[in-house]
Amino acid sequence: MKKQKTKKISFKPIGIIRSDFSQAKDTVFCCEKGLKAKNIGMVILDSKHQRGLKGIEKFSHIFVLYYLDKIKKVELITYPGPLSVKNLPQVGVFASRSQYRPNKIALRLVKLVKVKDRSLMVQGLDGLDGSLVLDIKPYIPGFDQPKSIKIAPWYNWLAKNK
After folding, report:
1. Where in the numbering of this chain does the TsaA-like domain appear (predicted)?
2. N or C, where is the chain less crowded by C-beta within 10 Å?
3. What pLDDT score was predicted for residue 156?
């Protein structure tokens, strides 16, 4: 296989996150609660992207992809959960949902509460206030929900939060 040069890529944000979170440590309870987190946040799109929201109100849940611009460190080995969960093994960052990633891209499944103009009110968003939104996609079980799954045992603590 021929070695290729690494290409640089760039993204133009489509909007911004508005939340009560100013620091990464503020979002710990979202990690602990998963989809049960009740916090409300806003995804506000740039006006030029507002037309792209047509039909989004027909979905109960959406994925928000955003840029972790306020996270400055990278941890290739990490703990796959909040500090409140004891006895977790250290694992590679790609086997975790850690925010301390080589590419500062976050993915979060959130409940879509309300759509008004270019603003999406969502529940469970763990983004810091001012984080740049890269994309929004609807959650579609036929695409996004496998028939059978296997998860690593270090995420068994999430089942206890159901």
Report:
1. 11-148
2. N
3. 80
